[in-house]
Amino acid sequence: MARIETILQRKGTDVLTAEPTARVLDAALLMNEHRVGAVVVTQAGRVVGMFTERDVLRRVVAKCADPAALTLNEVMTRDVVTTSPADSVEEARTTFMDRRIRHLPVVDSDGTLRGLVSIGDLNAYELSGQKVRVQALEEYLYGGAA
Description:
Layout: H1 4-11, E1 17-18, H2 24-34, E2 38-43, E3 46-52, H3 53-61, H4 72-75, H5 89-99, E4 103-107, E5 113-118, H6 119-142
Parallel strand pairs: 1-2
Antiparallel strand pairs: 2-3, 4-5
């Protein structure tokens, strides 16, 4: 059974983070620059929130708030669901579906941030596995390379 740590080994452990005191505008610009949909809000290496595209829409744009005047602390999602490197990919997929979220910070048993996985990361991982299985079946059926 595949584990989250396998996905992290493949994609890397770099995570876009910001302090709770960062301005919403700066975090949104950072997300745009790096072409990601979320920033993990950390304090002293611990996850204290998530700031996502959904937060921008619901808590900033929908309220006609000034992103330059708000901090992440004011608009971030505080109830952060996390996963551990040892959790299975299937457990993560269930969490994504049940909680209707797209990003899961990966934390150690002591709560230290170790990475971030998205629903897209899970899909890419599973797709690569399917491609390998299809190739193996083709080789079996048709006798090696054509």
